[in-house]
């Protein structure tokens, strides 16, 4: 994959608001694209040198409808693409950097576009993060109890072999947390903070007998 530097990041990107979908730097997010406006977004994205799409959580209005966008999202580079016989796209985004939304830009595209600010997230473009305080044994025990309580299955050998960042970020993206919880995981200032947040969510789910996604609702 072509690595991007801060000078490569554009001021304006296409935005894909998708509730509950979380993308983190250096992680991969597979997506199934079928709405016409997002099919157009993918086609336009592939014409740009950076091939970036910004994943962001829509915010709920008073009546439960989407009234806006979260302040912070994460841009991913389109690194895999295939088309089905009926015209749908199967893509993979690889996380590049988080961004702060400045303003939405009007125009003639059927999808949304925003002017964004990349400052403050320079670390996202660097090497994978480590978590020096990570005590993996108790964490994996907690995770095993949570998966059992939620009737979830996984490849425990692969999880055990994963490095700190891959493990924590994969769980952040894949566990059935609420959109609000996933936003908190996205905005975590460090890998250690993100891991501590996951532990809080897992412990709450186990102690309350509820889904972790209920924690911040």
From TrEMBL:
InterPro entries linked: Lon_prtase_N, Lon_prtase_N_sf, PUA-like_sf
Pfam families in the record: LON_substr_bdg
Signal peptide: none
Domain Lon N-terminal: residue ranges: 13-206
Protein name, entry field: Lon N-terminal domain-containing protein
């Amino acid at each position: 994959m072509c690595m991007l530097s801060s000078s490569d990041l554009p001021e304006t990107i296409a935005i894909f608001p998708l509730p509950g979908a979380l993308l983190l730097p250096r992680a991969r997010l597979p997506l199934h694209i079928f709405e016409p406006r997002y099919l157009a977004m993918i086609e336009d994205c592939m014409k740009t040198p950076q091939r970036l799409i910004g994943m962001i959580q829509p915010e709920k209005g008073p009546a439960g409808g989407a009234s806006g966008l979260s302040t912070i999202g994460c841009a991913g580079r389109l690194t895999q693409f295939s088309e089905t016989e009926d015209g749908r796209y199967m893509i993979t985004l690889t996380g590049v950097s988080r961004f702060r939304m400045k303003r939405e830009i009007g125009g003639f595209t059927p999808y949304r576009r925003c002017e964004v600010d990349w400052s403050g997230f320079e670390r996202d473009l660097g090497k994978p993060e480590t978590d020096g305080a990570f005590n993996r044994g108790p964490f994996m025990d907690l995770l095993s109890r949570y998966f059992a309580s939620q009737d979830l299955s996984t490849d425990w050998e692969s999880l055990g072999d994963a490095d700190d960042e891959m493990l924590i970020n994969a769980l952040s993206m894949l566990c059935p947390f609420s959109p609000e919880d996933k936003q908190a995981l996205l905005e975590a200032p460090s890998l250690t903070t993100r891991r501590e947040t996951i532990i809080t969510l897992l412990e709450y789910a186990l102690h309350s007998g509820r889904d972790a996604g209920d924690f911040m609702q």
